[in-house]
Write a structure and sequence with these properties.
The chain is an alpha/beta fold and 286 residues long. It is 44% helix and 19% strand. The structure holds adenosine monophosphate.
Length: 286
């Protein structure tokens, strides 16, 4: 496995793969890797000739400086894990390598057809512009055949699908396929997240109530006369009743449009909860 830190080196390696007609899989990450990331990388290794993993804490998608500063980083451990899974190349640039000064300090606005106006987009203004800024740059540099994203960040996946569909009309990313991968959870149900590293043992125990409530709500949705609004509120009330948890939003929306829905068909519930100072997200399909 080779670790690359410059765009120039990356493009040379990509070019060599293209010349040899190797198919390329890409897994973009922000590092502090866990089994959730590993599941994406394993799939990319299995389904492509060559697997690239990017490890880059992208500053332009953080609208909270403290969150950015406290984001866990451990490139040595990440590289060890990626090596054991069989990744071929790790791209780990600095922000200055990735962006010009102007790019680092300018807010880019992309049109996501409204997908960014709800939930995470509403709570973290500019977040998805930063995500698309870095992901489109990675697509441009790595020219993958397939790129892998987790359903844990469901809205992000929907927005990237949207971006690639629009760009494919323009031929920007060739025949790039976006592959959504299921959420990996601990046996307890807690969705794996790099941010879990910031939880104390007690907070981690408390955080279990989030996934527990989401799974429970699948049963509530099947109760006679259950409405989306009532189930949504019950989830919020149940989580908020736990000491140490505070719901930022819970929305049951259509899986494609991400707009509020009145039926449970093709619905997904997306939640953001503060567990102490740590912001956790999770979701469940009905
Ligand atoms: P991140 O490093 O948090 O930006 O995540 C990189 C990729 O891994 C994203 O596509 C995430 O959706 C995905 N991911 C993170 N956590 C999980 C998980 N628990 N299960 C599946 N995919 C995940």
């Amino acid at each position: 496995m080779q670790i690359i830190t410059t765009k120039q080196e990356l493009q040379a390696v990509v070019q060599a793969c293209k010349t040899k007609k190797r198919t390329i899989g890409l897994v973009p990450t922000m590092g502090a890797l866990h089994e959730g990331h590993a599941s994406l990388v394993r799939r990319a290794v299995n389904e492509n000739n060559v697997c690239f993993v990017s490890v880059f804490v992208n500053p332009t998608q953080f609208n909270n400086k403290e969150d950015l500063a406290k984001y866990p980083r451990n490139i040595v451990r990440d590289a060890e894990l990626l090596e054991t899974i069989g990744a071929d190349f790790v791209f780990a640039p600095t922000p200055e390598e990735m962006y010009s000064e102007e790019e680092l300090n300018t807010t880019f606005a992309f049109d996501f057809g409204g997908l960014d106006q709800v939930m995470e987009g509403k709570m973290r203004p500019g977040h998805f512009n930063g995500v698309v800024q870095v992901v489109s740059r990675l697509f441009y540099l790595v020219q993958p055949d397939k790129a892998y994203f987790g359903e844990k960040d469901y809205q992000q996946l929907a927005i990237i699908h949207h971006m690639v569909e629009r760009s494919s009309m323009a031929g920007t990313f060739g025949n790039l396929q976006i592959i959504g991968c299921p959420i990996v959870r601990e046996d307890s149900g807690l969705a794996l997240s790099s941010r879990n590293e910031r939880l104390s043992a007690a907070e981690k125990q408390t955080a279990l109530e989030i996934s527990k409530t989401l799974f429970e709500s699948l049963k509530w949705a099947k109760e006679k006369g259950a409405t989306v609004a009532a189930v949504q509120q019950r989830v919020i009330d149940t989580i908020n009743a736990v000491d140490g948890l505070e719901v930022e939003y819970y929305e049951i929306v259509d899986q494609i449009t991400l707009l509020p829905t009145e039926t449970f068909d093709h619905a997904i519930g997306c939640v953001t909860v503060y567990c102490g100072p740590v912001r956790l997200i999770d979701n469940i399909k009905y």
